[in-house]
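Subject: Sanity check before I submit

Could someone independently write out the structure tokens for this chain? I want to compare against mine line by line before I put it in a report. The sequence has 332 residues.
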Amino acid sequence: MKPTISKRLIFDHFANKTSPLQRTAIENWLADVANEELYYQWLEEWERNHLQYDAQSEVALEHFFSIIEQEEAVESIEQSSFRAQLAQWTRNHAGKIAAVIAVTLGLTWYNWDTINYISYQTGYGEIETFKLSDGSKVKLNANSILKLSRWNFGEIERKVYLKGDASFDVEHLKNHQKFIVNTPENFTVEVLGTEFTMSARKFGSKVVLTNGKVKLHYVEAADEKELIMKPGDVVKLKKDRPMEMTRTEAPEAYSEWENKRFVFDETTLEEMAYQLHETYGLDVTFSSQTIANRQLMGSFKGRTIDEFLQSIAEVLDLSVSRENNKVLFTDH
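---
Independent answer below. Compare away.
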């Protein structure tokens, strides 16, 4: 008889109390992705009710020492010797102890992060669209990742974490709940319901507003600042440089990567190299710094990355060669 999958059975599974037949049934049940959310929800509930025992090692050690001290058969010099040996052993193995603690904490963080967050990710050269549980749509550029809470997203708050490039079409909720995009690049975008494109990359970040209104929170010279953006505003953020804001009549042009098209606005070839590394995994070099400092303007598209590279070379009257992921631009 096939076991019925219930919360009680899953809890027994977490406690290692299930039979081989039950474990097989659970594995088959988990093969259906529709059951994953419920499984993680039960796992979080079980872990909250079964916290790991935190051994009070220092208290136990002191208790151990007190027992030794009470033993009349043990001479005080032997006690001191034992303490000295134990202290020496601890010093000698401090590195191993620290490593074990670090690994344990790392695994705990990894498991907790996996349980609590849903991740949407694209590889090099991939562009994908995802629909979030609140109805919002997100299109991710190549080599980008978006994380959000697995639990109650859109009920209590709407916070997402972006690394890379994304275009957002945010659903406006009846309770006017804000939609907040956090990045690792020291800026946050706060919206109510709008369309915008943003990039959060190490070489430089950008926010372009198409419709609606957003509030940009950023850090400049160690000071926290805010900026209300209007449709057509383009904000550029680079490390150790002041914020730059310009206007555009065609904000949709800044999401041309959705059509695998690059748009450059006084972009140096060195900055272009960063973009190609981030989105295609290419290592682009130049035969001279003069070439690296040359600037690009306009929109470029190629059916393949090689066709795109050749277009850049022709526009700037350069030669380009590629071997696997290595690209070199040189003068003729």
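---
OP: Matches mine. For the report I'm noting this point. The chain has a mean pLDDT of 81.
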